[in-house]
Amino acid sequence: MPIELDDFDRKIIQALTDNARISVSDLSRHVNLSRNAVTHRMSKLEKSGVINGYQVILGDGLPVNEKVVAIMMVYRKDRMRDTEVIKYAATVSEIVSCYIMSGDYDVILNVQARSHERIHEIWQAVSGLKSVDDTHTTFALSTVKM
Q: What's the pLDDT at 84?
């Protein structure tokens, strides 16, 4: 049997959605109910399945302005004519620069992302392009000069 939610329940759910770690004291002040009433309502919402649990979402642990920097060197199958990598690079905000090179690799991508996982996703996309023959990626260990 579905539970009927009133305005207090909705406010509790919204506050917990915004911050699942909010204390019962702060939550009671936020919804203007006693701590006992909030605790009782939370228990009712949990038992009825409206609230199935609380979740921790892990971040990448980096300070707000810090980025993981990688240089992705790309060797294309048709070095002179193919623009697929360049077109892709233009669509990805984490690729901050794209250089057409002479030498062993045709294209060098400067990638700056919030996590190694995001750089891995970009690498998978680049290496999966039809025109890409090979890639080589290195990560910056520290910044000495910008």
A: 92
Query: Which string of DSSP letters, residue by residue, matches 69-117?
Result: EEEEEEEESSTTT--HHHHHHHH-TTEEEEEE-SSS-SEEEEEEES-HH
Q: Is residue 40 in some structural domain?
A: yes
Q: Note whether 31 and 73 are same-domain residues.
A: no
CATH number of the domain bearing residue 118: 3.30.70.920
Neighbours of 76 (CB within 10 A): 21
Q: Does pLDDT of 58 surpass 60?
A: no
Please give the model's pTM, rounded to 2 decimal places: 0.56
Tell me which residue has tokens 């910056």.
140
pLDDT band, residue 21 (cuts 50/70/90): confident
Specify the residue for token string 């294309």: 76
Q: What is the CATH number of the domain that holds 29?
A: 1.10.10
Containing structural domain, residue 104: 68-139
